[in-house]
Amino acid sequence: MKTKYIDLVEQTFDWPQPEFRLENDQLHWHDVPLLDLIERYGSPLKFTYLPKITENIASARRWFHQAKEEVGYEGEYHYCYCTKSSHFRYVLERVLESKVHLETSSAYDIDLIRRLGTLGKLNKSQRIICNGFKKEEYVSKIIALHADGYKDIIPIIDNKYEFAAFQELIQEPMNIGIRIASEEEPKFEFYTSRLGIGYKDIVRFYKKSIHDDPRLKLKMLHFFINSGIKDTSYYWNELLKCLKVYCELREICPTVDCLNIGGGFPIKNSLAYSFDYQYMVTEILRQVKASCEEAGVPVPHIYTEFGSYTVGESGAAVYKIIYQKEQNDREKWNMIDSSFMTTLPDSWAISKRFLLLPINNWKENYERVFLGGLTCDSDDYYNSEQHTNAIYMPKYYPDQDQYIGFFNTGAYQDTLGGFGGIHHCLIPQPKHVLIDKDPKGKLKYKLWSNEQKPKDVLEILGYYD
C-alpha cells in the first residue's frame, strides 16, 4: 500500500516538474537546495530567485513574436512591468536589464523613477505609462518629469477630474491615454470598474475635451480586466467591446495607435496548474486583427502590463512546523514559526492560493492537517475552508524537523504585509535572501534584509526618542 507523501504526489500530479525535483528526500527549487538554504539562514525565511524574472519576460516576448508571425499581425509588441507588484530595487534593476517599459500607479512611483535615473539604471528615453487615480500631486509630478526630459511618458486618463488638472498644469505637448471602465464579472459586488471612463462615453469625451487641445495627443487606449487574461466568455466579450471602441476612436483620431491590454497572465498556484499561454496570445492578436480589418482601421501596437507574472514566480517563503496541536479527533493543526498575516497577507485577505510543498520528509506517511500562524487572530490560518483542496503533509513527529514552503509568492506580499513596518501581534518580518546565478551558472546568495528585532519595532511605535 502506497502511503508515503511522495506516493501521494506521484499518483496525483506529473512529477517531477521543471522547477521542482527531489534529491535525497529533500526538495530542490530551480536547483536551489532548500534545506541547505534553511540551514544557512534559518527559518522563517523569504527568498527571491532573480533569474525567473528574466525568464518570464523572455517567454512572453517569445509567445507574442510567434503569435504575430502566425496571425500576420503588423503591429509592434511592448512589454511593461507594473511597479506596484514589487517596488524593490532588486526587482526593478533585474526587470530593466530586459529593456522593458514601466507602468506606475501613484505619485511616489514618480520619485522611484527619478531615483532609478539618478542611479543610472534608467534613461530619459524610457517609456513610462502612468496609471491609477491621480490627485494633483501625481499629475504635477508626471508633468514635471515630462518637462525634465522624460518625453516618452503616457499618463492614462482615469476620470474627468484628473483630466482637468492636466489641462490646467500642462505647458508643452504630451501624449496621453484613456482607460476603459470595463464591466466586472457577474460575481463581483459592483457592475462596472471604479477605474476608467465608460465604453459609451469615451468617444464623446475625446471629441469634447481632447480633440481641439493642441497640447494633448491621444496615443493609447487602456483596457484592464481585474481577473486577468483568461480563456472565458467574459474576457472575450469585454475584449470585443474594447476593440469596438478602439476602432471608433481610430476613425476620428489617427494618433491613437496603441492598445494596452492590462490585466496580467495567471501564475502557477498548484502542481496541477495548466494554462496555454501561446494559445491565449495568438487568439488575442487574431481577435484584434479581425476587428480592425472589419472596421477598416490599422491594427494597434500591443502593450501588456505584467506584474504578478513578471515577479510572482520568483518568490518563495519557508517555515518550520514548531508544534502540532490536536484540537479534536479530526483536526490537527501544524503551527508555523511565523504568521500568514505578516508574510503572506493575500492568503487570508483574499483567500489566494499559493503552491505549497514540504521541504523534507517526503518518504514519511502523509496526514491531513491545517496550518496555523503565530498570531492570536482566528484568521491567521491556511486550510481547505479557505481553499479548494485539503492540505496533506508528511506525518509530524516532535523529534523530527519538518519544513514547508510556499512558492510563487513574489508579487505584492511584502508591500501588502508592510515591509519594514509593524505587523499584527508584532510578529517579526523574516529574513529575505536574494538568489542569482553567475555567468557559469553557479548559485549566488545575498542577504537582502535581516529578521526584525524588537528594537526595530519599538522605534516605529515611538518607544525610543
Please outline the helices and strands:
Elements: H1 5-12, E1 20-23, E2 26-29, E3 32-33, H2 34-41, E4 45-49, H3 51-71, E5 77-82, H4 89-96, E6 101-104, H5 107-118, E7 128-130, H6 136-147, E8 153-157, H7 160-169, E9 174-181, E10 197-198, H8 202-210, E11 216-224, H9 233-252, E12 258-262, H10 277-295, E13 301-306, H11 308-311, E14 315-326, E15 332-336, H12 340-343, H13 345-349, E16 355-358, E17 366-372, E18 381-382, E19 391-394, E20 403-407, H14 413-416, E21 431-437, E22 443-449, H15 454-460
Parallel strand pairs: 4-21, 5-6, 5-13, 6-7, 7-8, 8-9, 9-10, 9-11, 11-12, 12-13, 15-17
Antiparallel strand pairs: 1-2, 2-3, 4-14, 14-15, 14-20, 16-20, 17-18, 17-19, 21-22
Model description:
This protein has 465 residues and is α/β, with parallel strands linked by helices. The protein folds into 2 domains: 192 residues, Lyase, Ornithine Decarboxylase, Chain A, domain 1; 234 residues, Alanine racemase (TIM Barrel). Helices cover 32% and strands 25% of the residues. The strands form 3 sheets. Strands 4, 14, 15, 16, 17, 18, 19, 20, 21 and 22 form a 10-stranded mixed sheet that branches. An 8-stranded parallel beta barrel has the order 5-6-7-8-9-11-12-13, surrounded by 6 helices. Strands 1-2-3 form a 3-stranded antiparallel sheet. Helix 4 links the parallel strand 5 and strand 6. It is globular and about 75 Å long. 39% of the residues are buried.
